[in-house]
Amino acid sequence: MKKKYKYLLGVSLLLALVCAFLFILQSRLFPAHGASREALAIDGGEILRINGADLWVKTEGDPNKPPLYVIAGGPGFSSNYLEPYLHFLSSDYNLVFYDARSAGRSAYDPNINSINFKTYVDDLYALTQQLHPDQEINVLAHSYGAATAMGLAASNRIKISKIILVSPVDSMHRKEFSNLFFRIGLPPTDPSTANTWFVEHSRDVFGAMLFNHDADAVMDKIYANFAVMMKNEAKDHYDYSDELSKFSGKTLLIYGQELEAGLAGERSQEHLHAIIPNAQVEYVPNSGHFSFAENSEYFQKLVRTFLKK
């Protein structure tokens, strides 16, 4: 009887330890609240009030030229990692760089429950109507930013001439297992400190997605909202597949030829190419997930050629 009691006690203690570990893991990786911070009026941007949120926005190029909106990945990242590699477009387009709600240099709301992919689409639409009301637009999006671009196209609320999706996620939400936190450890419990911690580990996070490590510094200076990123990737869902099959604009899909991030891998590539009418697919040699930085000359040639069609 004593042996059975000790055995049950041991099992109970083990289960309690496992439950405690899982609770800590859950709370650290998927915090219930994010950081609180006002928008940062830096880097030549201005702060615009969009749907009740303060967004960081910067325009570049002739305002009379066709608008081209740039959407950063993450979710939760600032667009400054893309900006240096897209200046070449400012001679022909009115470029709009912006950071999404509670992302990058925009204002951070600690209540992250309502920040999801629908919110991003609604905010982008409202931004286009404030800057370029009732105009046809173009869009360039990277990685998870493609979800917002596809959502806007699927909503059919605005005429989109051309969409360029660089290493995009799929048109439907997919979860991808990562061993990242086994490699770099768990984030701090304080949301603001966790944001800083994530950026400080940017090379550990993104290095495996690069083929050309001359571009290792591409994400060194981003602003990121860790809590929003983890919530969006793990808990929020979208599926624009049916609506995208009716999209009438031109689409260019660009991938790194040598390797890709899991969410932009072969399954996603095949699915997007199958559902988006007349999508053009191109691969940038000697590149991974950040082809615009890894082989910028080849990337720029692809984009210029596509936009001239």
What can you see in these coordinates?
- With 309 residues, the protein is an alpha/beta fold.
- It is built from 11 helices and 8 strands.
- It has helices at residues 2-29, 117-131, 145-155, 180-184, 191-200, 202-206, 226-235, 241-244, 266-275, 291-294, 296-307, and strands at residues 46-50, 53-60, 67-71, 94-98, 137-142, 160-166, 250-256, 280-284.
- The chain has an 8-stranded mixed sheet, with helices on both faces.
- α3 links the parallel β5 (137-142) and β6.
- α2 (117-131) packs across α3 (145-155).
- It is globular, with a radius of gyration of 21 Å.
- The termini are far apart.
- Mean pLDDT is 90; it is low at 19-23.
Question: How would you summarize this macromolecular structure in one to three sentences?
Answer:
This protein is an alpha/beta fold. The protein has helices at residues 2-29, 117-131, 145-155, 180-184, 191-200, 202-206, 226-235, 241-244, 266-275, 291-294, 296-307, and strands spanning 46-50, 53-60, 67-71, 94-98, 137-142, 160-166, 250-256, 280-284. It is globular and about 80 Å long.
